[in-house]
Amino acid sequence: RFCLPLVLASLPTMATGEEITPALQDSWGDFWLFRFFVNAAGYASIVVPGFLLIQYFKRRNYLETGRGICFAVIKSCVFGSEVKSVHQDDGSLPLRAEPTESSTARQVCKLLCCATGLQASYLTWGVLQERVMTRTYGATETDPGEKFKDSQFLVFMNRILAFTVAGLYCALTKQPRHGAPMYKYSFASLSNILSSWCQYEALKYISFPTQVLAKASKVIPVMMMGKLVSRKSYEYWEYLTAALISVGVSMFLLSSAPNRTVSTVTTFSGVVLLAGYIIFDSFTSNWQDALFTYKMSPVQMMFGVNVFSCLFTVGSLLEQGALLESLRFMARHSEFTAHAVLLSVCSACGQLFIFYTINQFGAAVFTIIMTLRQAFAILLSCLIYGHTVTVVGGLGIAVVFMALFLRVYARSRMKKRSKKLPPGETPVQKV
Q: Which InterPro entries does UniProt cross-reference here (predicted)?
């Protein structure tokens, strides 16, 4: 009984392989691995009873025997309408709006608005994310201030606003008839909040440019997860660009800069958290892709996922007593309140810009805009927060973005070529 506290107390030092400074670690209870298991236990307290209820209703054949005022709710949550679209394109993304009478100037204006909205939303989001997780609040000449430590509360703030925005959008606009069982959103929701938590928590140990490059390299595990979850096949050029991305990221991570500080050094904990982010995020995208076989709009997907995200995070925060503690932190530091609210607004608005851009101009244009956003985010972070990048690291960044643009070009060429081929023929043999 006396060994367990000693083991838990030694976990931070064992995981990072170096001494933990007070700026990063105040106690073993704040260590990311401990917090991860505490959060997971909170989610399990909701998931396990929900799973048992779903199994109970299915075994009871509730669709045939159920009655009462709760029948419609239970049917929607557990069974749905079980109507799937024949083609995935029917439900995944809205058909791209082909401008027939719109002038070129109008289309250019729309594109500029979309690009500006995406860049402003996500660049602001990135700067605020690094500010909240790596800097102190309330610092004076006599008081060093305090850091905000609960990443889960930031996830909750983002999800509650996204849930509200998506709900209002669905209520005010015409949407397809919903057919998916609601509980199926919980899988993507759980992996989504875990990936977001890892993303926030990783900034305590690694620099923001490193995190951005790690996000760019997530195409590799996405492809692996696609093979495992959706049994997808990929072209040769997709494997080539994935290899180039991994080479570029390796060049950046292995390069060393003499002026790196404790707050920007890449540690073992940061690498593990980045790996967790990539794995969870890869599962989220593939599970959502499978869910789109039901006829639904992207905003309905956004609403369904965020319903469970709010449920999981608020339940876990209440069980830990962390919700009131975070609200007290907001009351003590009005600057943090403004940052947290603006962070959530940028996240929610960014998602709407994503849907609109893909609907109007297609996925290729959207990918180019977001790839440029990643490059601007690294530059902005280096300018504002003083990160240093070596020559080798800069070459690694260039290789990564070259590979990303090559993916966009190759995918657009493949689509144009496939349109010219007769039905049933594929342009290149899949591997």
A: EmrE-like (IPR037185), SCL35B1-4/HUT1 (IPR013657)
What is the per-residue pLDDT across 398-425, written as a single tens digit (0 to 9) for each? 888 888 888 878 877 777 776 665 554 4
φ, ψ of residue 198 to 5 degrees: the values are -60, -35
What CA–CA distance (Å, rounded) separates 387 from 410? Answer: 33
CB atoms within 10 A of CB 148: 20
Give dist(CA 431, CA 414) in Å, integer.
15
Helix (H) and strand (E) counts in the chain: 16, 0
**Cα gap 17→15, rounded to integer Å:** 6
CA distance 379 to 369: 15
Give the separation between CA 350 and CA 420, rounded to whole angstroms: 34
CA gyration radius for the chain? 23
What is the C-alpha separation between 83 and 359, in angstroms, rounded? 24
300's CB contacts (< 8 A; 6+ apart) are: 166, 170, 175, 176, 178
Alpha-carbon 155 to chain mean position: 10
